Each structure stands twice: as structure tokens, then as C-alpha cells.
From TrEMBL:
Organism annotation: Egicoccus halophilus
Protein name according to UniProt: Polyisoprenoid-binding protein
Family statement: Belongs to the UPF0312 family.
Start and end residues of each Lipid/polyisoprenoid-binding YceI-like domain: 13-182
InterPro entries named among the record's database cross-references: Lipid/polyisoprenoid-bd_YceI, TTHA0802/YceI-like_sf
Signal peptide (UniProt feature, chain positions): none
Superkingdom field: Bacteria
Gene3D superfamilies in the record: Lipid/polyisoprenoid-binding, YceI-like (2.40.128.110)
Pfam families registered for this protein in UniProt: YceI (PF04264)
């Protein structure tokens, strides 16, 4: 099996490999630049039904405390009641409600994202990036994609006005996914 193996040959259930995956985000800061971050603690799985993609499923659970923007003060603020309310809502979850193939290697995954106790639908555009058998004999697949959400839809409303106009934190947040997963035996 090579990186060009057709997805049609990969029907099965997969477990996300967090040590080779990333769940990240990008948000505008001070109206002039972007801050990037990631969640370092997450688990997830998905089932691929190559013959009927609409029967495929996916789920992901992220530990809010694992947020990492390479700045401890900012991370502490993001874990607080101003943003993730981590003590009351320690997990962010995504559960798919529909998966459709929209191109040779492109998929549209629709699902429910729960953050701060609020559940809203989101759609993630994913690209199947290939598959391979790793040195341990595991069938491994890759997917990459993103979606843009408005943080206020989940009640993440904190902000600070800037003297020159505008606000400190943009409302739009890009969620980015780089997923490597291994097929369950």
C-alpha cells in the first residue's frame, strides 16, 4: 500500500494518532497579526465506509487545559472564564452528523462542535492526503483540513477595545486539522 492507495480500499475504523496529528487554531490579534495555537491532548476515531461515505463517522475529544500558544500568560487567560471556562467545561467535542465526498480526495464533514456547554453545527473541508503501511505494519491514513467559526457563537465574547480602534481578539477563528490515524485490527 502506498501514499496513492485509493480511499476505496480503506474501509474500516481508525484511531487518531495524537503524536503525529495536530489540532490547531488561528485567531487575529490586535487587528494586525495572527496568533496560532494548538491543543496538545486529544483523542478521536473515525470509521470510513468507502462504498457509502455518508455512513462514515468521526469523533474528537479535546482537553481544554492542553491549549498551547507558546505564551503561558495567554494560555492561562484562554483557560479562564473569559474564554474556555476550563474548570466547568474541561472538554471540547466534535461528533460528525454527515460525511460526503465532494471530489477525488476531498470530503465535507458536518458535525456538532461543543464548547463551553454550547453545541453548534460546523462543516470541515478535509482532504485525504494518502495512506501507507508504517514500519510496525499499521495501515495509516492522513487527512488535512480546516473550518472558520465565529467564537461568539459559543459564548466566547471577551475582548478589549484598542485605542486606535478595533479590538484585541478577532471574532473569526480558523480551526485546523492535520490527522494521522491507524486502522484498528
Amino acid at each position: 500500500m502506498s501514499a496513492t492507495t485509493a480511499l476505496s480500499e480503506l474501509t474500516g475504523t481508525y484511531t487518531i494518532d495524537p503524536s503525529h496529528s495536530q489540532v490547531g487554531f488561528v485567531a487575529r490579534h490586535a487587528m494586525v497579526t495572527k496568533v496560532r495555537g494548538a491543543f496538545n491532548d486529544f483523542v478521536g476515531s473515525f470509521t470510513i465506509d468507502a462504498d457509502t461515505p455518508s455512513n462514515s463517522t468521526a469523533e474528537l475529544t479535546i482537553q481544554a487545559a492542553s491549549i498551547d500558544t507558546r505564551n503561558e500568560d495567554r494560555d492561562t487567560h484562554l483557560r479562564s472564564n473569559d474564554f474556555f471556562v476550563m474548570e466547568q467545561f474541561p472538554e471540547l467535542t466534535f461528533v460528525s452528523t454527515g460525511i460526503e465526498r465532494v471530489g477525488d480526495t476531498d470530503y465535507r464533514v458536518t458535525g456538532d462542535l461543543t464548547l463551553r456547554g454550547v453545541t453548534k453545527p460546523v462543516t470541515i473541508e478535509l482532504e485525504y492526503t494518502g495512506s501507507a503501511v508504517d514500519p510496525w505494519g499499521n495501515t495509516r491514513v492522513g487527512f488535512e483540513g480546516s473550518t472558520v467559526v465565529n467564537r461568539k457563537d459559543w459564548g466566547v465574547n471577551w475582548n478589549a477595545a484598542l485605542d486606535a480602534g478595533g479590538v484585541l481578539v478577532g471574532e473569526k477563528v480558523t480551526l485546523e486539522f492535520e490527522i494521522s490515524a491507524t486502522k484498528n485490527a
